[in-house]
Description:
The structure holds 3 protein chains of 3 kinds. By secondary structure, chain A is mainly alpha-helical. Chain A contains 10 helices and 2 strands, in the order ααββαααααααα. A two-stranded antiparallel sheet of chain A has the order 1-2.
Amino acid sequence: MAASAQGDLAYRANFAISLLHSLLNLGAGVAGVLALPWSQVSAINGWDRRGLLALLGVYLVVSALRGLGLGPSLDALAGMDGEVWSGRLDFTLLRPVNTQFLASFRQWRLFTLTDLALGLGVIGAALAQPGEALTAGRLLAFVVALAAGMAILYAALLACAALTFWSPGFMFTWLFDGIFQMARYPVGIYPGWLRLALTWIVPVGLMTTVPAQALTGDLAPGLLIASTGLAFGLVLAASVFFRVALRQYASASS
Amino acid sequence: MTPLGTLNHRGGWALVKSTWTSWLQYRSFFFLLAFGWMLPPLIYLFVWSAAAGAGQVGGLNRGQFVGYYLILILVNQITYAQTNWTVGDVIRSGGLNSWLLRPMPPLYNVLSSELAGKVVYLAFVVPVAAALAVLLRPEVHPAPGGVPLAILATVLAWALRFFWGLWIALLAFWATRADALLAVQDALVFLLAGVVAPVPLLPAALRAVAAYLPFRYMVGFPVEIVTGQLHPAEIATGFALQVAWLAAALILARRVWRAGLRRYSAIGG
Amino acid sequence: MFQPQIAVESLTKIYRVPQRPPGLAAAIASLFRRTTQDVPAVRDVSFTIASGEIVGLIGPNGAGKTTTLKLLSGLLHPTSGSARVADCTPWERRPEFLRRISMVLGNKSQMIWDIPPLDTFRVLGEIYAVPPAEYRATLDELVALLEMEELLTKPVRNFSLGERMKCELVAGLLHRPAVLFLDEPTLGLDVSMQTRLRRFVAEYNRRSGATVILTSHYMADVVALCPRVIVIHHGRLIYDGGLSRLAARLAPFKLLRVTLGEAEAEAEAEVEIEGAEVIERENGRLTLRVRRGNAPAVTAQVLQRLPVADLTVEDPPLEAVIDQIYQGDLTGFHNLSGLEAAR
């Protein structure tokens, strides 16, 4: 940790700004999701303030966990810096901001820990709002739903990495990231066709909406079971897919 | 040599055309980028549509929110700043030497990437926005004269965002990485430029801040004009602020360029 | 009045480098106080080059060659001293100056990657405002000299290194610069391509009268192209003159190549000759290094004591000499410093 802190300090200006960015981003996220529609309405499609706060908290927690554990290694493999990409063409002029922001993985980790803490804090704030109290059963359901959601996220990122082997240069992770942004809000917000797509086709809905519903007590047990089952299936499928892609890449590049 | 030193229109224009030809080959890459940038406004389109439901929120109904955000997507793409890559990366990688050796103001290189990029991005965004319009049925009620005013505001918004992005990208002369600063900027644009909510709908405190900072004038302001959300007085003050910020951005860009180049030619590229 | 194409007077460039000492405490301290160190890159360098010359700029890595080139092309401005290139002060970077010079880099490309070179050439023609007739004529001549007609319409990204280098040369010469800076132009190329490029540069110089300054780590480049070399070491100009004279100065010895008669092959095992150093022995062939003055005496000794079938006396290869410079071994230069700066 000392070495990474020192690495940060060496980029003096960048450190100060990174700190500011972290805080500002979190503030913007909170304000953006929380404060604004609420100044005008009290509920959207059945989701009240409490529920949406909980969802925001879950989104931040999921993003942070992704950043801490899964993100960097998979992104490095599949991302613009991966060996699969380099040599084909010099896109240094055109990289999206988020990849470039990864000055170092350790620096990234330092700030994602803060994000995780904030996410948990937001969840805490959500539960403090007037509403049904949290029971042990709900907490358990939440943990299971969150685990299932993380597993599906993992499967999705793995699939993106695998696809990159086949089609290097097509930024699958970037594409997924964009769609993942939609998980800031409950899937109920979106029109019917989009809701279905986000639940069953690219299941970002299952990553945040289901755990949030578990917390607020609105989760149908069937959905939890389906989510867990889907998680298992997708992780399995993605692992197989990845192994196949890896084998093909390894044989092709020799 | 200043960025707008001896003009070389022939060279600049030739560079635009060849950059555009070159980048068109990677359409799918650019289209994917544009898609990613389109998603945040799209998300809020859905959120606010759902919030409005059958009624109204902040004076706008569902159709008007759809219209606001679809136009925002267009304006955002027209004004989006790529300078961190087209300038910042060039400085960091030593490619600036190539620019400095040519008898052409270096700004022309930046402008050529800018124009070429915009053409390619819009080739994706315009059809997609049109398709979404068919799908989502927007409602737009511009005030009389609103459309030409909005077009003017869009041109000024492009210039503002471009030169603002330029001076920040030129910080590459000093800092090896300015990405965090850009990320801060993106967060501010997200919050204050009319993406999270149309600026008139922001809570009072944020609305006041947004009215004075430049970000709203980079994206949201033209959209507010064309969707009829502003009184003529507000439009006038809006233009005044937009022009003021543009002047500030031009001055900043020129100063930073000069100082940066002095440093660059002192310590070597 | 003779007006040199390039005139450099007491050119000095000192870099101010920030210090970043290791350790966490020092890193924190550096947040508040920046300490810098002065690193002289070019020290008091003076020379003049006439129009049409080809001059090699050589020296070990970090000696100041690249800095000198950057100063002459206007990319850097000096700490002190002056320079005139093609009647302009380089670091003012006036358009008329920029139109008269060209820099071709071995490791950086100015071609646009995804379109045929012809398109990049067209753009450069526009940027340098080359009149269409002249553009056509120059392009045709360069393409013919470099034998690259069929490359013109294929995208650059598929080219080999040698083909790319050809494009770089055309790109750099389309506007008929008066001064051409070549920085490691043959870097990474195979031997035949190196030879072709060398021939091209010589021919181009002959035809156009352009002044050429060349830096290269391949001594074959320098030997083939540069009748005159300027040696920079630790930022100072330590030699400016003909290449062969440099070799004579630096390596005041000769090589004796001795082929021994077959029957007496074992005799080589015990040979020891005063004033000579055996630097190679292989298959009945010996190579001895001998100080110039001792050459006749040693030759006589060798003929006397060894069963010689054949003997030749050679100058050491220039490559070896220049390698010495690059190794930083300039023992032969101690008597040169300060006195031999001129031709």
